[in-house]
Amino acid sequence: MLADLLQNSLDGLTAGAAYALFALGFTLIFGVLRRANLAYGPAIMFGCYAATWTHLNFGAGLLLLAVITLAGAVLAGAYVERLCFAPHRGGSAIAAMVASFALWMQFEELATIVMPHHLYAFPALYDGPPLALGPFTLRIDGLVMLATAIAACVLLWWILYRSRFGLAVRAVIEQPTAASLAGINAPRVFVRVFALASALGGIAGYLVVASHGQITPMLGMWSTLKGLLAMMLGGLGSLPGAVLGGLALGLIEAHSQWYFGPQWRDLIAYLLLFVLLAARVPWMTTRSAS
Amino acid sequence: MDDYAIGVLTNIGLFSFLALSAYLLLVAGEMSFGQQAFFGVGAYAGGILTALYGWPLPFAALAAMALGALAQFLVGLPTLRLRGLYFAMATLAAAEMFRIVFELVHWRVERNGELAGPDGTQGFRGIRWIFEHGIEPIDYLFLVYALLAVILLLLVWVERSRLGAVLRGVGLDPELAASVGIDVHKAKLGVAAAAGALAALGGVLYAHHNTYIEPRNFDIMLGVHSLAYALIGGLGTAFGPLLGVLLDIGVLEGTRLFHGYRMIVFGGLVALLLVFRPRGLLDERMVLWIRRRFS
Amino acid sequence: MSLLGVQDVVTAYGKIEALKGVSLDVAQGSITCLLGPNGAGKTTLMMSIAGILKPKRGRIVFEGQSIAGTPPHAIVAKGVALVPENRLVFAAMTVLENLQAGAYQRADQKSVGEDIERMFTRFPRLKERAGQQAGTLSGGEQQMLAVARALMSRPKLLLMDEPSLGLAPLVVEEIFRIVTELHQDGVSIFLVEQNAHMALKVAQHFYLMEQGKVTFSGDPGSLAEDEVIRRAYLGSAQA
Description:
With about 290 residues, chain A is mainly α. Chain A has helices spanning about 1-35, 40-60, 60-85, 95-115, 140-160, 165-175, 175-180, 185-210, 220-235, 240-260, 260-280, 280-285, and strands at about 120, 130-135, 135-140, 215. Chain A has a two-stranded antiparallel ribbon. In chain A, α1 (about 1-35) packs across α9, α2 (about 40-60) runs parallel beside α4 (about 95-115) and α3 (about 60-85) packs antiparallel against α4. Chain A is globular. Chain B has a two-stranded antiparallel ribbon. In chain B, a hairpin with a 2-residue loop joins β1 and β2 (about 115). In chain B, α1 (about 5-25) crosses α10, α2 runs antiparallel to α3 and α6 crosses α7. The radius of gyration of chain C is 17 Å and the shape is globular. In chain C, a hairpin with a 2-residue loop joins β1 (about 1-15) and β2. A six-stranded mixed beta sheet of chain C has the order 6-7-8-3-9-10, sandwiched between helices. A four-stranded antiparallel beta sheet of chain C has the order 2-1-4-5, covered by helices on one side. The chains are: A mainly alpha (about 290), B mainly alpha (about 300), C alpha/beta (about 240). The interface between A and B is large, with 49 and 45 residues.
C-alpha cells in the first residue's frame, strides 16, 4: 500500500513537472498582460508538430528536434502575441482571449491538415528499461522531465531576480504604470516575456511528447487545460504557485487515477478547482484578472 | 430545397440558441467557457424523456429548459461573484465535470425489446421522436426557426425595456450599477438562468435532429465556438450571435468555401475582426447607428 | 526660456474630457507649481505630459520637441521624469532595485552605481534600508524612494504629483527642502500640490487649475495667499 502510494507520488510528480512548466508559461503571460493566452498550448503543439514533420521527412536527432520544437513554439507564440494581445493592450480582455481561442482553432486545423493521421510516433527520449530502485520504478524520461523542470525554474529565477531584464519584468508585473514612468519599455517586455513563456512551453511540450513517444492533435487542448488548471490551483499570478500547482495537480491526478480510474481522475481535478474558486479561497483570487 | 441546405440551415438555427446563451452572459459582463454543458444537459434530458419515457417533444423541451436553467443557476450561485478569468475558469471546470458525468452515465431502459438510453462514452442513440411522428426535415427547420423567432422577439423586447438597460449597465459597469441600487449578483443569476434555459433548448432540439449524441459533442471546443460566435457577431443586439453563427456555419461551411481549412479562415477572421471591432460587428455603436438611420 | 510648453491640451477618458484645453509653461531652471481642487485634472495633466495618457488634441513641447503621444519610456529618455501620485513604489522589490529600475533607460549603466551612491548620500534613510523591501518603508521614506527613483534617470525636468499627500508635517518639510535642493542643483521642477502653503513658499510661478482648465497664472505674490488656498481646495465657484 505504501509502496503504491510512493510510486504513484513519484509518477505524479513527474507528470506534475510538465504541468508546472506549462503553468509557469501561462503565469508569466498573465503576470505581465493580465490575460490568459488560450493559444498557448496550441502554439506549443505547433512546435512539436514542426519537429515531428521534420523527423518524418528528414529524420533528425533528439537535440535538433528539441531546438525545432522550441523555435516553432516561440514563432507561433509571437504570431499569437501580435494578433491577439498587442492590438488589445489597453482595451478589451475578452476580445484578446477570444482572439486567442480563434488562433487555437487555426493551429489545430493546421496540424490536422499537414499531418492528417490522428497519431504520430515521436522519437522516444529514452528507449531502455526504467530504473529500478528497490520496489519502485523510475522512468528515465520522467527523471529527465523532473530535472529539466528544476533547471527551468532555476533559470527562470535567475532571469527574474539576477538580470536587468528580470527587473523590468517584475516591475511591469507589480506596477505597470510606474514601470513605464521609470523608463521601462513595457510593450517590449511583453514581447520578450511572451517569447520566454513560449520557450518554456516548448521545452515542456517536447519532453512530454518525447516521453510518450507519440503526438496527437489533442496536445494543444491538453496542455492548455493542464496549464490553466495548475495555474489556478497554485493561485493566479504567482510563479511559485504555478510550480506548486503543477506538482499538486500531478499528484492529485496520479492518486485519483490509481484509486478511481481515468475519468474520475479528471473529474476530481476539475471539482477541486471549482470548489476552490467557488469558495473564493484568498490565495487563489487576490490577483486582478482584468 | 435540398437536404444539404436544410441541414445547414437547421444547424445554424440550433447553434444560434447556444450562441445566444453565451451572448446573454457576455452582455451581463461575464465570459463563460461552459455553455456547452447546458446544451448537453438539454440534449440528454430531452432525449431521455422522449426516447425512454415517451414524453411528447414540447413537454420534454420545456422540462429540458427548466433543467438547463436550474443547472446554470446552481453553477452560477457560488461563481457569479467571481470576475473575469476566475469566473471563466470556474465555468470551464463545471462544464468539463458535466461532460465527464455524461461519460459516466448509463441510463438504460428496455424499450421495444431492446436497451435504449445513454451508454456512457458509447453515446445515446435512438432519439427518434421526430421520425416516429412523421416530422419532415423541412418541418423541423420551420419549428426551429419559429422558436428562434419567438426567443429573438422576447430578447429584443427586453433589450428595449428598462430591464435590458439595467442588464447592459450591469455588464458595462457593475460598480456603477451597484451604486444606484441594483443587486448585481441577483441580476447576473437571472441572466444565467435564462442562458441555461436557452442553451438547453438548443440542446434538446439538437439531440432530436441528430438522433444520436455522445459526450464528446459537448466539449470545450463547442463552448469556445459559441463564445466566438457571440463576440464576433456583436454584443449590441440579439441578432449579433446569429450573425456569428451565420458567418461560420452558413458562409464557411454551407458554401463549402475554403473547404478543408474552414477553421483556419474562420479563426483568422475572428482574430482580425476583433482587432478592429472588439465588441463584434453589430456592436452597440453600430446598432445605435442603424437605429438612427432607419428611424 | 520655456522648458516645457503645454498648448491647448485636451485629454479624454472615453467621452469624458478631463482636460478641456490646458495651456501653461514651465520655465527652465524654475520651480513651477500647479494647484487646484480634487478632480480638476492635475493628475491627468501630469500623466499626459509623462506619456501615460495620450492627448486628444493639443501640443506638449519639451526642449522644442513635441512629445504628446510619445510612449512614456521614450519621454524618460528625453529627460522628463514623473514622481507619480501615491508614489507607486515597487513594493516587492528592494530599495536598491527600485533605484535600479529608475535607471533602466540609461545608456551608460556603469555610472548608475555612482548615481545610486549619490542618492544614498542625499537620502541617508534610503541607504539604511537599501536591502529592504520597498513596501516595508514608511510613507515618507517611500516618497523619498519615489523621488530618488525618478532622479535616477537624470531628468532635466522633474514632475511631482502631490508629494506631500498623506505625510506628517515634519516629513513634508523635508520633502520641500529636497525640492529646493534639487532646484539649486539645476533640475527644473513642475509640482502638483494640495499643500498650497508649502508649495507657494518654494515656487517661482504657479498655476491654478479648475475643471480641466487653467484659471490663473502668476507668481506667489500676485494673489493673496488665503485666496489661493481657498481656490486650490474649493475652486473659485464657492462663495
